[in-house]
Amino acid sequence: MTTFRRAQPANATVLVLMCAYFVLPLWWLAVSATKTQGELVQDSGLFSISDHFLSNVADLLARDSGVFGRWLVNSMLYAGIGAAIGTVLAAAVGYALSKYRFPGRDALFNVILAGVLIPPAALALPLFLMFSRVGLTNTYWSVLLPSVVSPLAVYLARVSIDAAVPDEVVEAASVDGAGGVRTFVLIGLPMMGPGLVTIFLFQFVLIWNNFMLPLIMLNSSDLYPVTLGLYNWSGQFIQDPTLATSVLVGALIAVVPVIAGFLLLQRFWNTGLTQGAVKA
Amino acid sequence: MPHHTSSLAEPTTAVGSASDPGPRRLRGDAPGAPRRSRRTRADLRTVVVLTVPFLGMFALFYVAPIAYALWQSLFALRRSGAYRPAEDVFVGLGNYAQVLADPAFQQSLINVGLYAIGPSTLTVLLGLVIALVIDARPNRIGAKLARAAVFAPYAVPAVIGATIWGFLYAPTTSPFVGAAAVIGWDVDPLSWPVVWQVGNIALWTYVGFNVLIFASGLASIDPGMLESARIDGATTLRIAWSIKLPLLRPSIVLSVVFNLIGTLQLFTEPVALRTLSNEISSVWTPNMLAYSEAAANRYSYSAAVSTLLAVVTAVFSFALLRAATRSPKP
After folding, report:
1. pLDDT above 80: residue A216
2. Which whole number is the average pLDDT over A56-68?
3. What is the arithmetic mean of pLDDT over B231-242?
4. Relative orientation angle of helices A151-164 and A272-279, to the nearest 10 degrees
5. Closest residue in B to A269 (Cα–Cα)
6. Which residues between 159 and 188 in chain B have a beta carbon less than 8 angstroms from any beta carbon of chain A?
7. B42 touches chain A (CB under 8 A)
């Protein structure tokens, strides 16, 4: 047991150093959001908290006739609607794959697995080429529609349904005369519980953080999600240095809800979902 | 197993396993019974209703763009005379020959290659070390905090991560550059090689994701095995090296594949950092090259770059997964 104890200080040091590397940039962001432009340049210390946070937020919300609020709403729409529809579609396919045996099932599953290996970044430009032919670029649809499709979500849904929805339950419902789709909606979906939440959250974050697709598709800043809007602002620092404060405060506002959601839902990571995903 | 006569198939875990009965061996009642065929038809209808919405979207927004890019990459804008409008002419694989000979494309491949050897490998290794350290005493408060801390940056959009680090690299706004100067250490991140300027941001963002993959792998190790090793007197380090690490093999492969895909498709971090750091060229990665070609309305050339990149990515990930599943598992 002595060796065990000897390993502890080393472990603790590694953990503290790691935490500093991962957390300090976020801490710096929060501290900087309280400073004016002048204070930011004069004193970039990690602990020199100032008291201009609220006036910074007011400045941010007023800038360019309130476009930041619009970007937040856009991000909510893209990520909220996209992830909600995407999760239900993925759960439906996952349920069919898990509970039914039908012609072409294995082929379907293999195609979806292949889709997992194609990163969305590889699709963004081809999508743009295609959408520009039909005049769909620079619309809400051009970002929302492609975001809905996630092969990874289907895979996760299937693994989660295999684990969470016993065949006997579905079988009993079918003996009682309930239709297949009805059984899926009334019994399958509720039983998936945490799995469904996790899939929704993963997709929400992926869409919220997406950058390349909106960058390629959108011209009007009215349609921008928050990531693209802040990127555009940080490209204009040279003309207008006061944008720096707005970008930092905006970044903080855009980041906090997602981190909070992740941490609140952390216990779901430890459910069978991710374990099954690795084992399979 | 009496319930095998019911209308439900048992779930299979393997993909297209050999033991899968043929698609026609559908439901289990007496063959030819009218009730069975009605059930089968109802089941098929259910499957169609459940799968068609996703499949339709998948075909439109996954398959069609790839097919369209492939098609587009076979054409090029040509003028037949000085005063004639340019028109699309079929050039076969001409664009691909041009892309492969393009010094900008070759350089971008070298850049992501160096990135794969450097920051990308470090991301996997660091993720592995942190996961093993946390797993040595998973219930300690420190371990729980560390897990949350490491994972937090993964929730930060890559653009915003790059913006934060852009400020942290700049001497006027960075607390670290100033603090290092106080102890006489001259640090200037903006003079680092671009691979590491960008790599540091991606490392910060994605180590947590890799820790998550390894943590799920570690969670599926039989605790009894670890307990008996401990009783036999194995040290924590020894257990990590000789038992956990070999058993983590599938997770390591998965993590390497994810990192490789991410590296080949690198785009957001360098593009965002470009607004704050002058060193990064607009065609630093293949994806950036494809983007700037499309922005210049050279769609066919851009499509050829995208297609080549997708093919390289698919070949690498397939080869890795294949190699991993073929060799015997420990």
Report:
1. yes
2. 90
3. 85
4. 110
5. B212
6. 159-161, 163-168, 172-175, 178
7. yes
| Integer Cα distance of A170 and A154 in angstroms | 19
Question: Rounded mean pLDDT of B134-150?
Answer: 80
Query: Taking the model in full, what pTM does it have?
Result: 0.82
Task: Count the domains in chain A.
Answer: 1
Q: Which residues of B touch A216 (CB under 8 A)?
A: 291, 294
- H-type helices in B116-222, by residue range? 121-136, 141-151, 158-169, 175-182, 194-219
In terms of Cβ atoms closer than 10 Å to its own Cβ (0-12, 13-18, 19+), residue A132 is middle
Mutation target vs A (from B43, B167, B274; most A CBs, 10 A cutoff): B167
Which domain CATH number covers A128?
1.10.3720.10
The token pair at B100 is 């492969």
Let me know: does A155 contact A115? Beta carbons within 8 Å.
Answer: no
- DSSP reduced 3-state for B208: helix
pLDDT band at B13; cut points 50, 70, 90:
very low
Residue A142 is predicted with a pLDDT of 95
Which 3-state string (H, E, C) describes A3-36? HHHHHHHHHHHHHHHHHHHHHHHHHHHHHHCCCC
Residue A232 lies in a domain: yes
Would you say the C-alpha torsion A177, A179, A184, A186 has a positive or negative sign?
A: negative
Q: Is residue A46 part of a domain?
A: no
Query: In angstroms, how far is CA B205 from the centroid of its own chain?
Result: 13
Evaluate whether residue A126 is within a structural domain: yes
Q: Which one, of A155, A81, A83, A151, lies nearest residue A116 by Cα?
A: A151
Residue A252 lies in a domain: yes
What are the CA-CA distances from residue A75 to residues A251, A265, B236 (Å)?
13, 20, 46
Write out the residue range of the structural domain in which residue A140 sits. Answer: 59-279
